[in-house]
Request: fold
Amino acid sequence: MKKSIFLAAMISAFSITATYAQDAPKEKPKAEARRGGERRGPGGGYNAAEMYKDLNLTKDQEAKLKDLNDEQGKKRQELRNDNSLSDDTRREKMQEMRKEWMEKEGAILTKEQKEKLDVKRKERMERGGNRGPRESRQ
Reply:
């Protein structure tokens, strides 16, 4: 009789454990978790549309910035996927890419638009949120 009760208790314990294990949240893949599950835009840390809002961009500027951001996104992804690089080398290359991206972005925007964007980046940095390119963090 004791064996039957013990066996029933063990079966119940295992079935309850199995039920809870199935309800456990699934982990995101590393890359998705690192980026928050969405593509954020230039610099990887913020949403380009949000940052460019209120800059009164022309259609030509919008197209050029979109092309620039798409190009940079592809380059960043290729760099992330390059397993032959050390972490330090990858970090240096990312910094170079960010610098290059900011220079190209600056060439597309007018002086007033750049000033507005710098203010937005500074405000975002002060809030401690997604800060964008490293150059704007210093």
In short: Residues 37-137 form one domain. The chain has six helices and no strands.
